[in-house]
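Annex B. Sample input.
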Amino acid sequence: AYKKAAGHFWQSITDGNTSHHAWLYLAHSHAASGNKDAAIKTYQQIVSRFKNTDAAKLAQQAIQKLSAVSG
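Annex B, continued. Sample output.
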């Protein structure tokens, strides 16, 4: 279900949705489906695209959490 959700959020972004919400939900969906690498990459994009925002802070926290998890 989360993998499918990630596909829908990505489609929304490629269709022009520039909100940080779409990016965060995409990253959360990757993380929930077990796709750690894609989640971290997406969170990194959020940090870059939405500098100095609450979304960037949340993404940075998620990166740290995922990086601390082994495997």
